[in-house]
What does this fold into?
Amino acid sequence: MTTLTTTKRVPIETLVAKLRALRKAAFDETEQVRALLTAFPVEEPSLTRYLTWNRQHYTRNLIDKTDLYELIAICWEIGQSSSVHNHRDQNCWMACPIGTLRVENFIVEFEDHTAGTCRLVASNTVEMSPANPCAVDPKHPVHRVVNPREANRRAVSLHVYSRPFDSCVVYSPDQGTCGDVKLHYNTVFGKPVE
It folds into this structure.
């Protein structure tokens, strides 16, 4: 288990209650939710019912959803990563209660969605750990999340999206292509999706 010495960890239900208590305006900027994730890091045992694993691809597990936000636990096997993607102009916050993850950010220099072409430039990298949650930059929201092979352990990230969405744009920086991808959950409220 990961040790967090600066702040006592709380059950996932406490974080859900805190998110549900936020006013709508908190989801329109990035600081309040990021501060909440910092102040209330989640304890590992309370997440157990939401965690599913797949050797082929990370899993998306819905924990809570309202009109204002959705909270998802994403489970990463060693070496797994997301595609480079956006969040449909929604804000996103991430915390990593288990393991460490790398968030690689990109700047979109050019995008023609109709033609499916783009040009991206890597901008910066953020390490996410239990003590270091982060917010996606609304001005440059394109990124990828990586569970580095050298970390040599599974990881779990909690993602809060400012409004639920069911598709995103996925980018291939090497090929200069982009296109829409439909999103799905592997579990909803701890139960497998058929």
